[in-house]
Each structure stands twice: as structure tokens, then as C-alpha cells.
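Go through this:
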Amino acid sequence: MRNVLTALDVGTSKVCALVAESLPEGGGATVLGFGVAPCTGLRKGVVVNIEATVEAIRAAVAEAEKTSGVRVGDFHPFPLCAPRKSRTD
């Protein structure tokens, strides 16, 4: 049985999707495929156009599926960091 891993990075300018396979015995992972799509639905990390964002995610995932030969069931996105704020005193 394959242990397939997925990653999704939704950024201000592009969406990246990655499909990898975990190697046995803690041997790391090997990339099976990836997809990249331009994203116009975010500004400064905030969704301003949900339809454009969803379309970019779909396009990146479709490309990752095509290049990996693996059908992706789902991604489990989570925020890696909060939007940056500057402070002046």
C-alpha cells in the first residue's frame, strides 16, 4: 500500500500543489508530481475573490494529479503563519 502525501500552498501570486510518497523506515519522501497555477484571488494574504482562488486551487491540483498519476482525494490545509503586520513606534 502506498503512503501518499499531499501539500497545498495558497499564496498571493500562485497556488502550488505537491503529491509525494513516503518512503519506508523513515527514509523521507519522493515527489511524484506537482502543479502550479497563478492566483489572483488574494491580496496581502487575504482572500478578495473566492471564485478566482478556488479556480487556482483546482488548476494546481489537477496539474499535480496529472503529473503524478495519482488521484488526490483531499488536502488538509492549515495556516503556516499569520499575515505579517508592521509596527512603528
About this structure: DSSP finds one helix and five strands in the chain. The two ends are 56 Å apart (CA to CA).
